[in-house]
Design brief:
The chain is α+β, with helices and mostly antiparallel strands and about 170 residues long. About 35% of the residues lie in helices and about 25% in strands. It contains 6 helices and 9 strands, in the order E-E-H-E-H-H-E-H-E-H-E-E-E-E-H. The mean pLDDT is about 90.
């Protein structure tokens, strides 16, 4: 069952590119808006463009008191190289065992493009924006088409709205 706005985001713990376990609830406890950006695979053209687009908008997201967390089924080692090569300035997490993409119901099996239809269980390109500290889902975007990117301006707008609401609370 897909998660929707108003649901509590399931907590999880995944390895980052430095092989440190990162827990979602710990990120939320920092009091920042958390933008979870699931992507199918490192080093692919659309995923590289998407992650670099988030990188290039980090100043705007930080102004909205938001952090970005990229998640794919790639190994932590591949993600480390991907992060280095693209100078990504946010956390990348490895869902190598495909537990979180199942938990969030954001996976392709098989991958929907003919060139890669032998790929099993990859993340759907999707974005969840979570409010701190409880991790309520304030925004969801899930694409069935891995070639479609999220609306980055909308992600920034929603993060700003949440930050504004939180600062008034």
């Amino acid at each position: 069952m897909p998660l929707k706005v108003g649901d509590k985001a399931p907590d999880f713990e995944l390895y980052d590119t430095e092989l440190k376990l990162v827990k979602l609830s710990d990120l939320l406890a920092q009091g920042k808006v958390v933008v979870l950006a699931f992507f199918p695979g490192a080093f692919t053209s659309v995923c590289t463009k998407e992650m670099c687009s988030f990188r290039d908008r980090m100043a705007l997201l930080e102004k909205a008191n938001a952090i970005v967390v990229g998640i794919s089924v790639d190994s932590p080692f591949a993600l480390r190289k991907f992060k280095e090569e693209n100078r990504l300035n946010f956390i990348l997490l490895s869902d190598y065992n495909r537990e979180v993409i199942k938990l969030y119901d954001v996976y392709h099996d098989p991958f929907p493009l003919p060139i890669a239809n032998k790929l099993r269980m990859t993340a759907k390109r999707s974005v969840f924006i979570l409010t701190p500290p409880e991790g309520m889902i304030a925004y969801t975007w899930i694409s069935e088409n891995p070639l479609v990117e999220p609306d980055y301006d909308e992600v920034i707008r929603v993060a700003n709205e949440i930050a504004s609401r939180l600062s008034k609370a």
